[in-house]
Amino acid sequence: MAFFRVEREVPLPAGTVWERLTHWEEHAAQVPFTTIEVTTPPPTHTGTRFVARTRLGPVAFDDPMEVVRWQPPPSGAAPGYCRLEKRGRVVHGWAEITVRTVAGGTDARGCRVVWSADVRVRGVPRFLDGLTGRAARLMYGRIIDGLLLDRGRGRGSGLGNHNGNRHRTP
Fold first, then answer.
1. Which of 100, 127, 128, 162 could make a disulfide contact with 79, Cβ separation 3.0–4.6 Å?
2. How far apart are CA 162 and CA 113, in angstroms?
3. Cis peptide bond N-terminal to 43, omega within 30
4. Cα-flanking dihedrals φ and ψ of residue 55, to 5°?
5. Per-residue confidence in pLDDT tens, the chain, 170 aa
6. Who contacts 168 (Cβ-Cβ below 8 Å, separation ≥6)?
7. Which of 116, 114, 54, 57 is nearest to 88 (CA)?
8. Per-residue pLDDT, 170
9. How deeply is 27 buried, as exposed, middle or buried, from its count of CB atoms within 10 A (0-12, 13-18, 19+)?
10. Distance CA 135, CA 138 (A)
11. Cα(158)–Cα(10) distance, rounded to whole angstroms?
């Protein structure tokens, strides 16, 4: 399995960040050649299922997922937590999303996002797990950044710390 972890500090309230990261259909706008269909009734809860379908010409595969733990961030310092199980024939494993108000701060100061996952891609040999993990970390970092884009201004993410690196979009 290829493990990766993406962390971000964002100047947005935890509830806003949670809503953006767990609006599953919106992920498709960040992943080329992919659509996402939620196959269970809203709202999202433990047991929600959705399928990401990636298609490039005649080649396509489904990435079915299920929410197996759902705990939106309450007001205060407690984190929000979501665990997804990936149950596809091509991609399987798990992903976890944690959203926590910045330590010692208020929701108005922003929050920290941690997206961890352990995935296996069918047909990719285990000796390439390191490369798969690095590629997945880059891809999911891009997805998270796109989902957290400051939509109010239409440009610039306002995203803060990226695993020790500052990121600014002009």
1. 100
2. 10
3. yes
4. -140, 130
5. 899 999 999 999 999 999 999 999 999 999 999 999 999 999 999 999 999 999 999 999 999 999 999 999 987 678 999 999 999 999 999 999 999 998 665 555 789 999 999 999 999 999 999 999 999 999 999 999 999 985 553 434 445 444 433 333 33
6. 156, 159
7. 54
8. 30
9. buried
10. 5
11. 7
How is residue 108 written in tokens? 């108005």
